[in-house]
Automatic annotation (TrEMBL):
CDD domains, alphabetized: SRPBCC_8
Domain of life: Bacteria
Endpoints of the signal sequence: none
A Pfam family per the record: Polyketide_cyc
Gene3D superfamilies: 3.30.530.20
Domain Coenzyme Q-binding protein COQ10 START, residue spans: 10-131
PANTHER family per the UniProt record, alphabetical: POLYKETIDE CYCLASE/DEHYDRASE AND LIPID TRANSPORT SUPERFAMILY PROTEIN, POLYKETIDE CYCLASE_DEHYDRASE AND LIPID TRANSPORT SUPERFAMILY PROTEIN
Family annotation (InterPro entries): COQ10_START, ORF3, START-like_dom_sf
Species: Streptomyces broussonetiae
Name of the protein: SRPBCC family protein
Length: 154
């Protein structure tokens, strides 16, 4: 597995940044290669992605979610293996640091080449910059889910 870590400071309050990140169906608006995310229930999402011309589908499970602080997930089925966490840190009343850490196991030739050449790192860096632009241009979140998911919850 390769680990990717990227952070960005966004010009919105922590609650706004966190609430927007809980709107998984909006991810294709700022994540390159994410074609669709369907929220199945409070814990599970179905993803359709495309990388290097290869389409992948997989399901993720949220394993830890604490409003305004963090969301952690892992894949549970499909063509992709990853786990990660996004953290939200209040800088001041109108700024938030958003930090994404992902462990990705390249599953095919395109992903393995992407990991070796730094393409995956650059894509995630771009995704974080696009999230910044997306939320700052909107000026507010498109929705929110404020529930708590604890590790070990069923």
């Amino acid at each position: 597995m390769s680990t990717v870590k990227e952070s960005v400071e966004v010009g919105v309050p922590v609650r706004t940044a966190y609430d927007q990140w809980t709107q998984f169906a909006e991810f294709p608006n700022f994540m390159e290669g994410v074609e669709e995310v369907t929220q199945l229930d409070d814990r599970h999402n179905h993803w359709t992605t495309k990388f290097g011309g290869v389409r992948r589908e997989f399901d993720t499970e949220i394993v830890d979610q604490l409003p305004d602080e963090r969301i952690s997930w892992r894949t549970v089925s499909g063509d992709t293996r990853q786990r990660g966490s996004v953290r939200f840190e209040r800088v001041d009343d109108t700024h938030t640091r958003v930090e994404l850490v992902m462990d990705v196991e390249p599953s095919g030739a395109a992903e393995k080449i992407g990991a070796m050449t730094g393409t995956i790192d650059r894509r995630i860096k771009g995704d974080m910059q696009r999230f910044k632009e997306f939320i700052e241009e909107r000026g507010g979140e498109s929705g929110a889910w404020r529930g708590r998911i604890k590790p070990g919850d069923i």
